[in-house]
Design a protein that fits this description.
mainly beta, about 375 residues, 29 strands, twelve-stranded antiparallel sheet
């Protein structure tokens, strides 16, 4: 038995957790058509006014909803598109709502919507994000052929209402059966995107550095979300067989996700949980049910395994907390306790109560992995 609380210093550790605080949800009905609200995307302007683009599944119509003075207003934004062509809502300078879908970019001009060709030929799936200078970065997926389809991924950017010539990022044999894309722009105006195409293709992390697009294949998956920390570093990625975006607040719910969280030194923590909930800003990720996290050994870094339940993580702040039982396994030690707090910047885990430890003597430990 150890003291009531135990601090554990980690050579380079990474995670975050905490019991989710109770949230009082206010539910408001926006559209009474029973097939409405499909693939909804939400953005807030500088005044906190919500702007929502969503599909009516029965007709394929895109609808736009906004709330002014407490009342919801709904109008047609674009008619008759494939239900797989989910929109991405953004806010342009001047609090102008816009959205991307099917390789097109729609900008609200008074009561109507101006249709701009993104120049990406992405009739399957498109996404966009606005940078600090007001420029819009966009990517799209499409395909051509029959039988052995050739799929492609293109990128383009919009400056002062004009889209650049498209940049081909990927051109290979795949059919975007269930395409999904998530994009964010860092403080330097560089776009970062997570892209899935089908369940046989890996999730890919695309990012642009010094004008060059780079790609990193990750695990298999169908739906993804991406976030950056305050320094513009990759904060976390999550992917799962089923993802749903809440139209009310833009948050994402993922079932049986595989996720990667990055510590302050960029080391990966890979994990699984029963479900995951991520807020729109990517600052909070709640991992519910059984949670496992693993950091692989690397030069100067020992492996670490954490097993707990109902973990709340703050990926951008590199912190975590939980009130549930937690187990921390490192070479030569197994620590168990009730409640855990972690700070990935200071590389410290704290077991909060009822702490038990099994320590293996140094001479009995297995030789360390090659550094």
């Amino acid at each position: 038995m150890f003291p009531r609380a135990l601090l554990v210093a980690l050579l380079v550790f990474t995670v975050f957790v905490a019991p989710a605080a109770a949230i009082d949800w206010q539910i408001e009905t926006i559209d009474v058509i029973h097939t409405s609200g499909f693939r909804a995307s939400l953005a807030l302007d500088s005044q906190g006014t919500p702007h929502i683009i969503y599909l009516v599944q029965s007709s394929g119509d895109f609808r736009y909803a906004t709330r002014v003075s407490g009342a919801w207003s709904v109008q047609l934004a674009h008619a008759h598109l494939d239900s797989r062509m989910g929109p991405t809502t953004v806010i342009l300078p001047g609090d102008v709502p816009a959205f991307s879908a099917a390789g097109d970019f729609f900008v609200r001009t008074g009561p109507s919507w101006l249709n701009e060709d993104m120049g990406t030929d992405g009739f399957w799936c498109s996404t966009a994000a606005v940078g600090p200078d007001g420029a819009v970065q966009g990517i799209s997926q499409g395909s051509f052929g029959s039988g052995a389809y050739i799929g492609f991924l293109n990128a383009a950017e919009r400056h002062e209402g004009v889209w650049s010539e498209q940049k081909l990022l990927m051109n290979t044999v795949f059919y975007p059966l269930q395409p999904s894309e998530s994009m964010i722009v860092d403080a330097n105006g560089n776009p970062h995107a997570s892209v899935t195409t089908t369940n046989t293709e890996p999730l890919r992390y695309w990012h642009r550095e010094n004008g060059v697009w780079l790609s990193e294949p990750l695990s298999l998956g169908l739906w993804s979300s991406i976030a950056l920390d305050a320094q513009g570093n990759l904060s976390f990625q999550t992917v799962g067989p089923r993802l749903a975006r809440r139209g009310e607040d833009g948050s994402i719910f993922v079932t049986t996700p595989d996720y990667v969280i990055y510590d302050g030194n960029g080391h990966e923590w890979k994990g699984k949980s029963d479900t995951a909930w991520v807020n729109k800003e990517g600052t909070l990720m709640q991992l519910d049910g059984h949670v496992e996290m693993h950091r692989q050994a690397a030069k100067g870094v020992e492996p670490v395994d954490v097993v707990t339940r109902n973990l709340t993580t703050w990926p951008k702040d590199k912190k975590m907390e939980t009130a549930e039982p937690a187990t921390i396994v490192q070479p030569g030690s197994i620590l168990r306790g009730i409640g855990m707090r972690g700070d990935l910047n200071s590389k410290v885990l704290e077991l909060l109560s009822d702490v038990h430890a099994t320590i293996e003597s140094k001479d009995k430990r297995r030789p360390a992995e090659a550094q």
